[in-house]
Automatic annotation (TrEMBL):
Cofactor needs: FAD
Glucose-methanol-choline oxidoreductase N-terminal domain ranges (all copies): 74-97, 247-261
Family: Belongs to the GMC oxidoreductase family.
Leader peptide range in chain numbering: none
Lineage top rank: taxon: Bacteria
Keywords from the UniProt entry: FAD, Flavoprotein, Oxidoreductase
InterPro entries referenced in this protein's UniProt entry, alphabetically: FAD/NAD-bd_sf (IPR036188), GMC_OxRdtase (IPR012132), GMC_OxRdtase_N (IPR000172), GMC_OxRtase_C (IPR007867)
Annotated protein name in UniProt: Alcohol dehydrogenase
Pfam families referenced in this protein's UniProt entry, alphabetically: GMC_oxred_C (PF05199), GMC_oxred_N (PF00732)
Amino acid sequence: MVGAGSAGCVLANRLSADPGVRVCLIEAGGSDASPRVQTPAGTITLYKSRRFSWNFFSAPQPRLNGRQLHCPRGKALGGSSSMNSMIYIRGDASDYDRWAELGCDGWSWREVLPLFRKSEGNRLGQDLAYHGTRGELAVDRARDPNPLSHLFIKAAEAIGLKRNDDFNGGQLEGVGLYNLTQKDARRLSSYRAFVAPVRERPNLQVLTGCKVLSLLLEDGAAKGVLIERDGVEQRLECKREVILAAGAIGSPQVLLASGIGPRAELEAAGIEVHHDLPGVGKNLQDHLDGLVTVRSPSPLTLGFSWGSLPSVLLSPFKYLAQRKGWLTTNYVEAGGFARTPLAGALPDVQFHFVPGYRSHRGRLFEWGHGYAVHTCVLRPGSIGELRVKARGEIEIDYNFLADPQDARVLVEGIRLARRILAGAAFDGLRGQEMLPGTEVQSDEQLLAYIREHAATVFHPVGTCKMGVDAMSVVDPQLRVRGVKGLRVADASIMPTLVSGNTNAPCIMIGEKAAQMILQGGQAKAEAVEDAALAAV
Ligand SMILES: Cc1cc2nc3c(=O)[nH]c(=O)nc-3n(C[C@H](O)[C@H](O)[C@H](O)COP(=O)(O)OP(=O)(O)OC[C@H]3O[C@@H](n4cnc5c(N)ncnc54)[C@H](O)[C@@H]3O)c2cc1C
């Protein structure tokens, strides 16, 4: 298995639970044993970390003033679940029903809900029709939410948005506190939930610091992988199958480097074509996001100032002694889903409220206080692609705003976010709006602002699309079309982007892949037994 991320870790757990299956989990990154990873508030120090992040940047985006957008992905045990903001959201039931309508049998909401429930260890007493309590993935609330997170909810209710105490309980729309993948105020990555507790299994081997360069292909079948460790290349062969779980950038990159992809592009990059599969790297989708950020005089908000110095200095002690205080925050404790005037029956934007100042200069830290709302386009129409370059390198082209409707939705979403922040709940806390800035009001001005400042909320998916059409890369059993012994199971297989954050859906994809592989193995064993009996 390639990649110990959100999907890879659950898959490694489920497969190795069968003593008859031997699993080798290969991860390019290293250990996750760092307070920056394990402490929720450490999350923002990871985005640009050279140790924990693949710091990808996109190709210049022509409709975003030629800017290259940052695309961090986790590079450590746990993958992106070791650097993400820990929000646990599944999306809308209709997301999965849409996959089924596109020909992905077995992936409708009714069929995937039991898999979400299986891995979940819900600690909030939420509706058992939707939630599991016995899974390894603890799901909790922020341990010590900032008072402003509650104010955001109050202000949103005041403009008519519904309160939602469970975004995963059958109704996405509304505002509330997010569920988080945390246990006792510590991050619970997919690695910590699913692999660390079973690492002693004799049939599970975990290799770190091993980058998979390409697949070993023989007679149209995957026989193993070529890895690089400490500058040395090595061949690892497998008996049964190779599973790529290297994420929406990593998995197509390995396929393309192995000569599996669009023929013309591979040839242009000087890569020998093993299998012409035109969909590899195509269908890239992500949530484009616009920020409203406001200064505040209040040291209640997260931020550095002389006023907040005592609480900042005390925070490590408060965390260690009580598991409370600043270090418990994931910075996006509250948010929700709303319909702009352009929406149909379903929400078209998601909010992430930050009870701290988000820099108007794109910095990680700024002196002083404030609060912010991120607003993203939930069901984007713009579709991008990954392109392979010489030496197998990848160019990420989101193609943002190719669909002009995305810009219109984002303009309306930012307006809605501003209306929330204008509410009485923030009176007394409100300072100057730094972005977009109060002078930015018309559609044209807001669009210009988006072009200059929009970013993503780090949810790339779809680059090894599951489906039954000519552009699909894997079939609904996640087998790579036209190559034997090879599957993909991670964010890349999503045919369409789900309406929400993507970690929980990736964990579900890992569960589903394991279920299909184990059932397939079972069916094969039974067929051999039947054949043997028939021969007697
Ligand atoms: C900063 C950030 C914040 C986010 N916040 C949230 C959030 O709050 N909630 C949420 O639901 N989602 C969030 N996401 C998104 C979510 O975490 C990801 O969509 C999800 O983790 C992806 O899972 P995956 O299994 O597809 O891949 P990953 O978890 O990215 O795993 C892929 C693994 O493969 C490894 N790998 C890649 N290439 C190779 C190779 N060639 N050889 C060996 N190993 C390789 C990587 O190092 C990585 O460990 C966030 C993402 C980021 C980056």
